[in-house]
Amino acid sequence: MELNTSAGGNSWNIMPENAVAGVVLAVLFLYFFVRHFIFVLMVFDMVLGWLRHFRWFPNEGKRMSAFVHWIIALALFLGFLVVGGAAGWLEYTPI
Questions:
Q1: What pLDDT, in 10s, does the model give residues 4-58?
Q2: Which residues have CB under 8 Å from 11's CB, separation 6+?
Q3: CA distance 93 to 39
Q4: pTM of this structure
Q5: What is the CA radius of gyration of the chain?
Q6: Least C-beta-crowded within 10 Å: which of 10, 25, 36, 84?
Q7: How far apart are the first and last CA of the chain?
Q8: SS3 readout for 44-59
């Protein structure tokens, strides 16, 4: 397993020197990834519990409507990116 990372303008690869170090690195990375995912879900659950107190937040029966509005918003945003790029309003430059 090879990890690529950068910080402070410097980039480097983390490459294990033997198979045991590679397995340990992979297991620890996967453990951290799963725990991070669970942590994010926990935070989302707390935020959703707070948001459910508001009247404008979609309840159980209105989630399809909220999803349709999200699709419409996404289409409008992507459409503006395409039209704005073609009209010269936006400039796309590679990093």
A1: 777 777 777 777 788 888 888 889 989 999 999 999 999 999 999 999 899 888 8
A2: 4, 5
A3: 35
A4: 0.54
A5: 22
A6: 10
A7: 26
A8: HHHHHHHHCCCCCCCC
